[in-house]
Every structure is written in C-alpha cells, then in structure tokens.
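Check this.
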Amino acid sequence: MAMPALPFVTAFYAALTGLLCVLLAALVIRQRFRSRVSLGDGGDAEMSRMSRVFGNFAEYAALVLVLLALLEINGGSRVLVHALGIGFIVARLAHAFGLARTADTNPGRAAGIVLTLLVIVVASVALLVIVARKIFV
C-alpha cells in the first residue's frame, strides 16, 4: 500500500500564515490598549481598521491553505504550490500594510486583494484539472 502524500510544502506556508496571524492579532491588541476598547471598535476608526486588517486576513487564510494542501496531496507541482504560497503571503502582507496605513484605496491594498484572488483562482483551476483527470480518465 502506497503511503499517502503529506503536504510538507503547504505545512511550511501554514506555519508562515500562523506567524502572520499572530503578528496581525498583536497589532489589533496594541490598538485595543491604545484606544481602551475591549470589544468591537468602540466607534474608533483606527480600531475598526485594524480589526479589518486581521479579519480580512482570516477570511482568506483557511481557504487558501486548504486549496494548497489538496493541490499538493493530489500531485500538484511543488513549484506551483510554492509559487502560490509565496504569492499568498506577499499578498496578505501587502494588503495588511496598505490597510493599516489608511482606509483609502491604495496600491498595497489593491495589489494584496488582486494577488490573493489570483492565488485562489490558479489553485482552484489547477486542482480542478488534476481531480478531473483522476475522475474522468
């Protein structure tokens, strides 16, 4: 019996994602102390923005990691998984720094969301192609 593929490349990006999660949470916590807001945003615009930096990250992280793991487990190219993992980390950093600076549209936010969505589309299409070959051939 063949040993199941373990998603070691994805594990690496999951670890980086975890560290980025802690960094963004720390920024929210720091802002909570500065604003003296323990729950919600307390009407503080900066608190609201920092909460969205973390929330936006959290909204995409799980989906991307699942897609990367499934892609890797199903025989997707390691180079592709690395490229998508790097793209996701860079995208989330760009988005976080852009949104943390200002609520206005800016190049960091724009690049971050475009690259995040590109990672999701490429991973999804690649996974569909791989799985379709296994199902229909």
In short: Residues 107-136 form the longest helix (30 residues). The CA atoms of residues 91 and 112 lie 4 Å apart. Helices lie at 8-35, 45-73, 78-101, 107-136.
